[in-house]
Amino acid sequence: MQFSFKQLCKKIIDVDHNIRFAGVINSNGRLITGAVRGNVQFYVDERNREMLFMEAALRTKMLLEFDSSLGLMNFSIYHRKNVITMEFPVGNETLYVSAERDFDLNKIPFKILEILRHVNILYNVI
Questions:
Q1: Which carries the bigger pLDDT value, residue 109 or residue 39?
Q2: pTM for the predicted model, two decimal places
Q3: d(CA 117, CA 125)
Q4: Could you give the CA distance from residue 41 to residue 63 in angstroms, rounded to a whole number?
């Protein structure tokens, strides 16, 4: 059975009502696909989103360089004034998730990680 990145993004959006956006970014920082909750407005315009995604892909790639000494990277979290963002490595891609600040940092990232583990074990992520 195949599990698409689009399905993955929709599943992530459904994890918690505070999740604003979930998208899969390729290794060059290009958005492959994504899902947005309802009529959520982005805090950055399209041009700056491209830059944000390129930075996220590069940052994830750089953090993975330390896997041999620090252990596998599960995810990274960035807590900003307006939003919380998270980055999860998914093969050669990055799952980028943004959420409202009311987001439960102690539970939701681990729920997302569990979904990723389930998908990687039971499905081929494409």
A1: 109
A2: 0.90
A3: 11
A4: 29
Q: Give CA separation, 83 vs 27, 44, 90, in Å.
A: 23, 11, 22
Q: Is 31 exposed, middle or buried (0-12, 13-18, 19+ CB in 10 A)?
A: middle
Cα-Cα-Cα-Cα dihedral sign, residues 7, 66, 29, 15: positive
9 pLDDT higher than 60: yes
All structural domains of the chain, each given as residue ranges with its CATH number in brackets, are: 2-125 (3.30.450.30)
Residue 99 has pLDDT above 80, yes or no: yes
